[in-house]
Sequence to fold (308 residues):
Amino acid sequence: MAEEISSMVLEPIGVIHTPYSKREDIPRQGRLSLELCEIEVFPEYAPALKDIEQCTHLFVIFWLHLGDRRRLTAVPPHDGKEHGVFATRSPSRPNSLALDVVELLEANGNRLKVRGMDALDGSVLLDIKPYSAGIDSFPQARIAWQKDGGATDR
Amino acid sequence: MAEEISSMVLEPIGVIHTPYSKREDIPRQGRLSLELCEIEVFPEYAPALKDIEQCTHLFVIFWLHLGDRRRLTAVPPHDGKEHGVFATRSPSRPNSLALDVVELLEANGNRLKVRGMDALDGSVLLDIKPYSAGIDSFPQARIAWQKDGGATDR
Fold:
């Protein structure tokens, strides 16, 4: 266990290019945005992209470098009440991991054009996974503290 | 940037208890499994769970301690062809991050009863996020290399 834990160091595998250079520019959720963003995978990891163009949607995991890792509760701006960070998508959380679902528009070598990111320009890329409707899509999911249960884009 | 990268060390925030003590026991995808699993959040992070019971479904991110971080391609057993790891859910990938969507059945203090996990018993928990149908559900997503495009549980 000690060995496992000491090895939980993340490698940067690429950079995410977005039009959002300041925190205030970021849309509240990536899906609200029609902006094109580009995921640049470092050349040494390019072989891991083989057949990525066969996926219509991807999970993108990146590092929230502005998050405060000590914060355990957050007050979402559109809600005004305090919730535990694990019940929110706050950028402040014990491990600064962000997760977006994006639409893959084009794959060109080690660069992916995508829609639906809410990352700050220059964010460090950590992982890409194919989104599978059969195991990842739960249209019935609800979050009671959100006005509409999170059922629609907010 | 150098400072950001040097700080990308993950903290264990809990342990995942599942009936799967060996790799061969793990269902191919968590959603195939009706087994109950328990997520134990370490007491110091329990305040981050406030209002979690208001979420019907959660993203769970955990560490794939048996993954080989040097592998960039994988041959899924049900497919027999080589794909880049970013186009698969292989446990071997540059950053050993696993992502499951689970159904939350019960929240009791710092323990969550969930269904849909494919983690090995004792896996290190890294993050929990609420699943929002409006931003995370894409029933139309397809993966062309999978027989049915990933549209149904496999």
The CA atoms of residues 77 and 130 of chain B lie 31 Å apart. Strands of chain B lie at 14-17, 36-41, 57-63, 73-74, 83-84, 97-108, 111-115, 123-130. DSSP finds two helices and eight strands in chain B.
